[in-house]
Design a protein that fits this description.
An 8-stranded parallel barrel has the order 1-2-3-4-5-6-7-8, surrounded by 6 helices. It has a single domain (8-221), classed as Phosphoenolpyruvate-binding domains (TIM Barrel), CATH 3.20.20.60. The protein has helices at residues 8-15, 28-35, 48-51, 63-76, 95-109, 123-131, 147-150, 160-176, 188-197, 218-221, 239-256; strands at 20-24, 41-44, 81-85, 113-115, 136-141, 180-184, 202-205, 213-216. By secondary structure, it is an alpha/beta fold. Helix 2 (28-35) packs across helix 4 (63-76), helix 4 packs parallel to helix 5 and helix 8 (160-176) packs parallel to helix 9. Strand 4, helix 6 (123-131) and strand 5 (136-141) form a beta-alpha-beta unit. It binds 3-methyl-2-oxobutanoic acid. 3-methyl-2-oxobutanoic acid is lined by residues 24, 43, 45-47, 85, 182, 184, 205, 215, 217. The site of 3-methyl-2-oxobutanoic acid has 11 residues, from strand 6.
């Protein structure tokens, strides 16, 4: 399937049973790398609160920070379908306030869609955003903005009541016009049931094998945080060791005087230089 251009590509992926790949991204360097891959969708997640800013939750993240990071990612990955998280309290106060915040994010960041956490309570917001031509991705299961209400970062929907509520919420989000739905840390059989009961694609993170797509946090899948090892995560690289190794090599070479070497220095006579970027 060619690169995702709009929300119709999500529906097409589900219809054609082609799994959707989504990855978070927060900065220009990684965005440029994602741009050179076949990843379908980039999410500028409010997980940037944890991953980039070092907070212990996503709660402190602001609309301005989301706009700043999403604009950066837009410039690094101009061809990718881009989703921006609505941060905590940007869509909780009123429908009007939600429209203003989401509208600002769309206008100022260059994203194609927004994502918000929650079910029934947020259906009026989802409907209003969709009516205002702002595509909405839903998010059920573990909703990190509600960490204090949930009592921690744990699997959601294991008991029968919560299971029923989640299935009902998924259907309500679909009816309200959401074009896709993230399912975070949900038992595989529940994610499967939801995936089969709605026509919009589900995108799992800890949602198992039967979701219509998968999403991971880029830093996690690249192995940049050794102490973060949830069951759902597969580390596709070990960047922690690579980066540490490179930094230690640099340090050793500075200390031993092997860096800079002959080919890293500028000469008064410009013609002696290889003449690449920064050759003045
Ligand atoms: O903020 C985020 O990165 C997310 C993903 C985990 C889905 O919401």
């Amino acid at each position: 399937m060619p690169a995702f251009k709009n929300i119709n590509d999500f529906a097409k992926s589900k219809k054609d049973k082609l799994p959707i790949s989504m990855v978070t991204c927060y900065d220009y360097g990684f965005a440029r790398l994602v741009e050179q891959t076949d990843i379908d969708v980039i999410l500028v997640g409010d997980s940037l609160g944890n991953v980039v800013a070092g907070y212990d939750s996503t709660i402190p993240v602001t609309v301005d920070q989301m706009i700043y990071h999403t604009g950066i990612v837009r410039r690094g990955a101009p061809s990718k379908f881009l989703v921006c998280d609505l941060p905590f309290m940007s869509y909780h106060v009123s429908v009007e306030n939600s429209l203003r915040n989401a509208g600002r994010i769309m206008k100022e960041s260059g994203c194609h869609a927004v994502k918000l956490e929650g079910g029934e309570d947020f259906v009026p917001v989802v409907s209003a955003l969709v009516k205002a031509s702002i595509p909405v991705m839903g998010h059920l299961g573990l909703t990190p903005q509600s960490v204090h209400k949930l009592g921690g970062y744990s699997v959601q929907g294991r008991d029968e009541d919560k299971r029923k509520v989640m299935i009902r919420d998924a259907k309500m989000l679909e009816e309200a016009g959401a074009f896709s739905l993230v399912l975070e840390m949900v038992p595989e059989d529940l994610a499967k049931e939801i995936t089969e009961s709605i026509s919009i694609p589900t995108i799992g993170i800890g949602g198992g094998r039967y979701c219509d797509g998968q999403v991971l946090v880029i830093n996690d899948l690249l192995g940049m945080n050794e102490s973060f090892t949830p069951k759902f995560l597969k580390k596709f690289a070990d960047l922690s060791s690579i980066v540490r190794g490179a930094l230690n090599d640099y340090n050793s070479e500075v200390k031993s005087g092997t860096f800079p070497a002959e080919n890293n220095v500028f000469k008064s006579e410009k013609k002696d230089e290889p003449g690449k970027v920064y050759s003045k």
